[in-house]
Amino acid sequence: MRTSAHVSSESPKFRRESFLCALVRVSVRCVDDQVTPPPEAVLISDLRNRAPGMSRRQAADAAGISHTHWRNIENGYRMFQGRPYAENGTAQMVARMAFVVGAEPGDLAERGRADAAAELEVLLADVEAGPWTERQRKRLRRSINRDSNA
Asked: Do 132 and 144 meet the contact criterion of CB atoms below 8 Å apart?
């Protein structure tokens, strides 16, 4: 016969869960119900929507991140316990997202993300100087230009 487990306020499990909840509340900033995505997220969303047929999932796969993380950064918030919390990507994450949609470093710098612009410059330089043959480099450039112009 199974009985339901009751967790009292003195139990170690209750204290651990309370501590984790308090830790999460301290490490993130809750925002109001009207969340406005940051300017770099609007840029990435606009460029992604211009590319025909590029869904968030496809873009996230190309960037090597989860589609949930892509969505959270693009929207500017994530939900936790029914409340929205600000979600700004790291410089490297925003640079990877910008690379996938064909944004330029100057675009990110104009929108207040000079750190992500610098990361994107490094990423573009790595792609340009990477272990590519000239044929692969041309195909990659064409692919990036096609996706950003579409």
From this structure: no
- DSSP per residue, 37-49: --HHHHHHHHHHH
Looking at domain 29-149, which of 3.90.1720, 1.25.40, 1.10.10, 1.10.260 is its CATH number? 1.10.260
User: 51: which DSSP letter?
Assistant: S
- Distance (Å, rounded) from C-alpha 148 to C-alpha 135? 20
Residue found by looking up tokens 């950003």 in the block: 148
- How many Cα atoms occupy the beta-carbon half-sphere of 125 within 13 Å? 7
**14, HSE (Cβ side, Cα atoms, 13 Å):** 7
Nearest partner of 33 among 3, 76, 97, 71, judged by Cα: 76
For 88-120, write each residue's pLDDT tens digit: 889 999 999 999 998 999 999 999 999 999 999
Distance CA 21, CA 25 (A): 6
What amino acid occupies position 53?
G
